[in-house]
Amino acid sequence: MGDRELREFGFELEAREGETSGRAGRWVTPHGVVETPAFMPVGTRASVKGVQPEELRRLGAQMVLANTYHLALRPGAEVIADLGGLHSFMGWDGPILTDSGGFQVFSLADCRDIDDERVVFRSHIDGSLLELTPERTVEIQEQLGADCIMCLDECPPHDAPAEALRAAVDRTTKWAARCRDAQRRGDQALFGILQGGTDASLRERSAEGLLPLDFPGYAIGGLSVGESPELMYRTLDFTVPMLPEDRPRYLMGVGRPIDIIEAVSRGVDLFDCVMPTRHARNATAFTSGGVVKIRNARYQRDDAPLDSGCDCAACGRFSRAYLRHLFVCGEMLGPILLSVHNLAYYQRLMRDLRAAVKSNGLREFRLGHLAGSGDGP
Amino acid sequence: MGDRELREFGFELEAREGETSGRAGRWVTPHGVVETPAFMPVGTRASVKGVQPEELRRLGAQMVLANTYHLALRPGAEVIADLGGLHSFMGWDGPILTDSGGFQVFSLADCRDIDDERVVFRSHIDGSLLELTPERTVEIQEQLGADCIMCLDECPPHDAPAEALRAAVDRTTKWAARCRDAQRRGDQALFGILQGGTDASLRERSAEGLLPLDFPGYAIGGLSVGESPELMYRTLDFTVPMLPEDRPRYLMGVGRPIDIIEAVSRGVDLFDCVMPTRHARNATAFTSGGVVKIRNARYQRDDAPLDSGCDCAACGRFSRAYLRHLFVCGEMLGPILLSVHNLAYYQRLMRDLRAAVKSNGLREFRLGHLAGSGDGP
Q1: Which of A240, A273, A306 is at the close of a domain?
Q2: Which value does ipTM take for this structure?
Q3: Which residue, among B266, B249, B270, B355, has the nearest Cα to B37 in the 3D structure?
Q4: Domain closes at, from A216, A251, A273
Q5: Which entry of A105, A199, B153, B284 is 20 to 30 Å from B325 by CA?
Q6: Which chain B residues are Cβ-neighbours of A47 within 8 angstroms?
Q7: Can you give the pTM of this predicted structure?
Q8: Tens digits of per-residue pLDDT, A282-312?
Q9: Could you confirm whether B246 is annotated as catalytic?
Q10: Which residue range(s) make up the domain with A81?
């Protein structure tokens, strides 16, 4: 099935940076082209919180992520399949990526037992006892029908002992082979997921296990799970070069703007993170001048837009004073407008990063970001 | 000031119905024309809950309402004045109407004392003791800067004794004269408010007191405060004819679609109500086939739109199954999309009512509504 996927999911590198490992590409999926580096807004339960698909499109989002674990519990993958699949269900006709559900089983749900065969867990919604196998996650993701789907992986905590990290690598490799064998649909790109924590030899072991399976793309899992940013960057330094040049590379669950800049500089192509929308609901906005906590009393009479360089619906029409008022009063429009703005910020960041790669300006862009925004270390 | 207001706020009757008292008009305000009969979405705290102004405009809303009481408490009328007034503050460049705050003082706040001079109440936010006078409500509303503002009135409960209703009528008349004298701005239409409950002689007494003050428009207060729909319609039967033909008539806080149809048939021009947005947040949608409680399990696999005759953002892109899923999961997008839909329903209702007036078809329209929707008695 590998050959067919590679044809349907052509990934063309348009530019490589001279000074860094940054790259710009075009990734063809059944629902459209994704220009990389790309950020996927997170629609956990088939909805990017507070934002209509039409608005997402307007902001420049090209691909969104949805969570298999949540959707399998509610409304159920069969229901979504009955309704024509995830694209139709959530009213988004662009590319979609689903994760495998594994990460949530280990973090959000109550993981009761795991062996090479399957993982048993309790639903965080009703406490019912469920199990997930590699075959089942592929079946569910085929029912959901995203353009890009993920192998089941085991993601241990960042401070797990070396033996546990190594066992997770080996189990993830075995599961990846089973996922690949279980795949029936030819119109979904199945990605393998590297594990191995922050240990170079374990990452090497993971790559050696997965690369022969010839996946059309690879994800880097097991990062952004509590380790320091510096350690994450060092891990990317040695992990990204293990991956094939001609396939997209996806860093799961990352992250802050500075993390994305650092990862793009190291050759990562795809990102997802709840941060822009979650921060928005907590009244925190990303702006070109740094992070703005909009509830602050200093904005009470501030008639300036959130970010004068931003052309989103919030910045085009409303003042900081009004946005503050909405949050102080608990008006829904506050989280809505800040979500729109933060997603606009992230999409502009990705466009700027693409342009920087093409003009050999990534290092300069990184310095400019650190000088201007103060959101990073 | 009356002459000037009449020029700036020209109200032209375009059509009268033959069989009912229904009428269609055009009302000119400083921020644009309002085609009547018109429904004003309610933006209590300078935000129609969950809906961006751009979307309101797209739905056909021409005028919105904001609440003086809430805005005077937060963020304060001076703050809004500093920021250029309510239109600029809330990003709505169309006509706006503000109420006087009186209704909230008697209902939402803790009213501590009232005499002919002023009303004393406790803020529902921080319990602070505040007072409102006719002069002060005009001053606040001039700071807010809406196109249409309201006199301070006393609105007793619908089951108040006759003596209390009569005292409220007389106080409302005295306060109306003081509001008129207090008005400084020439670009706001100040409406008088009739009181008198459901008693014809008290309504007559109220009209006799207010009409000599020559307001550019009149509101009917003291209805939709707990009386039966039939009693409200009977009250409109004798109250509306007391009002001048050539000025807009505004029925405050009403109501259900059937209430609006009945009131338009009796010659009312303007309406406001929280019902479309509040019902939306409670997962209840108005449709041409009747009220839909979207959380109901019967919609779990229903791939039809909420209302096939509706062209709103919710009906154009999403299924009932998806809308149900959003509510079951507690996703913000559920209330957002249902608010958009319910407001679209109300705006379409008003367009249909205008067309029915013009084609002498109000009675038929009313029967069709009752046969189709089942939302009313």
Answers
A1: A273
A2: 0.96
A3: B270
A4: A273
A5: A105
A6: 326, 329, 331-333
A7: 0.96
A8: 999 999 999 999 999 999 999 999 999 999 9
A9: no
A10: 2-273
